[in-house]
Amino acid sequence: MNKTDKSGRLMNLSNRIGFIWVAVLASVGVVASNAMIGFNNVKELNLVQESIRNTSEVMMSLDRLHIAMLNAEAGQRAFLISNQESDLMPFKRALSDLDSSLLKVAQSRSESEVQQQKINQYVNGVKERFTALRSTILVARSAAEVNESRLLGRTIESGGALREAYTDIMSAEADIRTVQLNQLKRVRKEAQINIVVFTLLSAVMIFAILTLLIVNLRSAKRAKVELEKANSELEEKVKARTDVLEHYAEELNRSNRELEDFAFVASHDLQEPLRKIRAFGDRIEKNHSEQLDEKGKDYLARMTSAAKRMSTLITDLLELSRVTTRAEPFESQDLNKVMQFVLDDLEIAITESNVILNVAPLPTIKCDASQIHQLFLNLLSNAIKFRVEGRDPIITIDVEQSALATQDAFTFIIEDNGVGFEAEYAEKIFSPFQRLHNRKQYAGTGIGLTVCRRIVERHGGVIAANSENGKGAKFTITLPIEPAPMIQELRNEL
Q1: Degrees (nearest 5) of the Cα angle 50, 52, 57?
Q2: Among 130, 177, 407, 490, which residue is least crowded by beta carbons within 10 Å?
Q3: In 270-338, where do the E strands start and end?
Q4: Longest C-alpha distance within the chain, in Å?
Q5: Are 42 and 65 in contact (CB under 8 A)?
Q6: How far is residue 208 from each of residues 9, 24, 198, 392, measured CA to CA in Å?
Q7: Rounded CA gap, 451 and 315, in Å?
Q8: Helices (H), strands (E): how many in the chain?
Q9: Contacts of 332 (CB under 8 A, 6+ apart)
Q10: Helix or strand or coil: residue 462?
Q11: Rounded to an integer, what distance in angstroms lies between the CA atom of residue 364 and that of residue 335?
Q12: Selection from 376, 478, 470, 476 nearest residue 423 by Cα
């Protein structure tokens, strides 16, 4: 499959997945809207049902009050006709239930304010009706001769208006309940429609989600196959690369062996002719200088000086190569002892230059003692060599506990009051053969600080310098207490 087909297939898959996601999000939005509508339907349904219940309570409480009034009238009429106390029992029961009936009516309220006003008037009329019925009974009891027909006529006439008011109120409440029942049917129908729509949308959303899952699973399966294929290809590439690296490693080992051979040749075969040149030059100067004119003596002096510089250069190059070719395994070393050996080596130079040396107590770290000796020796030698005429050299060595990446480390600070250098050369001074001063004024090959950097890097540390011209130099060296095994192994192999 070429890249064009593959990219086109991926684009189509991406478009399909995007469409499915749009469908899912749209379905979710519609379902959420439908759910909100359903919530409003339920809320409206509860309100309608509450209105119906309230109307029913109004009608039931009015009906109960009206029945109580009718029972009271029946008992009153029976008593007036028979003049028997036993016939007053319906009136007495209605009178005892009057307060509870009135309370029920007061606790309910019609949905219509006009109706409520009529109900209030009806309730007041009922109270007056009971008062009238009671007064006729009292009159009938107290009078010796009672005109029953006249009293009955009075009570019947006064009760007719209440019956008409009751009928009117109940008819109006029934109409209100009919409207409420129709509204209830409408809300229930809307709720049913909403449930059907919600179910359909939920089915669509579930289908879309299942489709998306299936597409994702297929995509994941296809990606897994492609990943396995890519891993197989990568393994082949890694194997081929490993073979190349092994070949490079063999070449590197061969080059290292050749470098060691060259170092041996340089230390013996090259130094020997230089020693002879210097020896014969010294003999000519000692035994035959009188036979040479001034120009011959100048040539001889230049030849001897050049041979000496070349010998020093070869020695320095050997020191630089030995940082890697003659490295020793790292061992725990007390740097105070290493520093003491350095000071012993520089004893004459320190005495002749009147050096004021301040050395703080040094820690114990894991290192190559011979290389750390070389590191401090080079830095102190430079501090003594690059001193200001007429000023006693002051060299200070401090140490601080610090960290380097994730390792515990120590930072060594070597500071002097010598000639210093411009800040722009803070990095260049660590390059091979980099000289900042005149060779006649300050001898050297410019390799010493390069050796220092190689030693520090082999120990997994860092070295930096800063200075101002004429104000001395400051070297900062950070070395891990125990170099990481991988770093140490790689440094040792190189």
Answers
A1: 95
A2: 490
A3: 331-334
A4: 191
A5: no
A6: 21, 6, 15, 88
A7: 12
A8: 11, 7
A9: 364, 365, 366
A10: strand
A11: 6
A12: 470
- Residue 115, amino acid: Q
Element (H, E) at 404: strand 394-404
Query: What residues does 464 pair with on adjacent strands?
Result: 476
Cβ proximity of 453 and 481 under 8 Å: no
Q: Residue 243 corresponds to which amino acid?
A: D
DSSP per-residue codes, 376-388: HHHHHHHHHHTPP
Residue 270 burial (C-beta neighbours within 10 Å; 0-12, 13-18, 19+): middle
C-alpha span between 149 and 81 (Å, rounded): 8
Q: How confident is the model at residue 493 (pLDDT cuts 50, 70, 90)?
A: very low
Tell me the three state secondary structure of residue 365.
strand
pLDDT in tens, 4-61: 555 555 556 566 666 666 666 776 676 677 677 767 777 777 887 888 888 888 888 8
Structure tokens at 417: 């009051």
Within 8 A by CB and 6+ apart from 196, the residues are none
Say whether 467 sits in a helix, a strand or coil.
Answer: strand
